[in-house]
Amino acid sequence: MKNVTDPFVSLGHWPSAGSFGFNTDILATNPINLSVVIGVLIFFGKGVLSDLLDNRKHRILNTIRNSEELRGGAVEQLEKARTRLRKVEMEADQFRVNGYSEIEREKWNLMNSIYKTLEQLENYKNETIQFEQQRAINQVRQRVFQQALQGALGTLNSCLNNELHLRTISANIGMLGAMKEITD
Fold it and tell me: Transmembrane segments in this chain: where (predicted)?
């Protein structure tokens, strides 16, 4: 049986006097073939590879630029948020202080109002007591006067006779007439 590589080996032994042939020596042909392939790839693929690398470079730069812009915006928003937070904290402290002072002020106002109301109630109570005392005194006076008048009338009626009664009436009428002349 013949070896399959025999025809190639026999081709390799042909003389190289201007003819075309295959070199079957692997160690000699691989670096040449690789250098030809690499040369062709570099020659034709240089533009494509360069374009791919440039596109990748631009995408990376754009991504970095966008990231920097986003970072700058985030830093700016963070500073604004910190400023707002400080402002809100100051306002909260101010409200807290104002709230405490307002509570104290309202407490004192309420206490003063309660004292004034109690004072007024005490005055009203005293006035009511005085009024009731005066009314009671007036009622007692009226009863005493009525009883004294009734006693005097009873005494007069029992002691007076018709003649004494007429003289007393005449004297009183005379006194009223004299008073009328004085006032006129």
Answer: 32-49
